[in-house]
Amino acid sequence: MTNSSSVDGVARLCVEYWKLMRASLRAADQLPEKDSKRLIAQVKFSDLQLATISGQLGLNLVSFDGESFSVGMPASADNGEDFSQDEDLVVTKTIEPAVVREMKVVHKGRVLVARRSDEEQEE
User: What's the farthest any 2 CA atoms get from each other in the chain?
Assistant: First the structure.
């Protein structure tokens, strides 16, 4: 296995772990309070571990929630075809984080976007 494919594999594993942690947080909302607190604490610890281990490998996971969406962003919008290119868009949800190593995108993120004006009305 080449170094490049090793990095790609670890990046994909980090993304899947990140998604599992987010799903676990959503599931915690459905549990009794005692169990929910325990699961949330475990997920927070796991998130810290993911950041530490990926950082040791030179990988940085980047979420985009609340950021302005632009063409140069290391993420693609799953619902981008719903909007024209000249609209002012904001990321409403990161589906998958981008993984960056040494200022290069190893894994492109996936996001959902909305018009900035629509997002401001909801607040």
Answer: 50
Tell me, what amino acid is at 81?
A: E
Contact indicator for 90, 43 with CB cutoff of 8 Å = no
**What mean pLDDT value characterizes the chain?**
91
Closest to 49 (Cα-Cα) out of 14, 22, 23: 14
**Helix residue ranges, H only, 1-123:** 3-28, 33-56, 116-122
Q: Which of 83, 67, 85 is nearest to 75 (CA)?
A: 67
Nearest to 17 by CA among 38, 41, 45, 36: 45
What confidence tier does 1 reach under pLDDT thresholds 50, 70, 90? very low
> Which two tokens mark 36?
């929910």
What is the model's pTM?
0.83
Tell me the mean pLDDT in the region 47-59: 95
Among the listed residues 64, 75, 68, the one whose alpha carbon sits nearest the alpha carbon of residue 106: 75
Q: For residue 96, which amino acid is it?
A: E
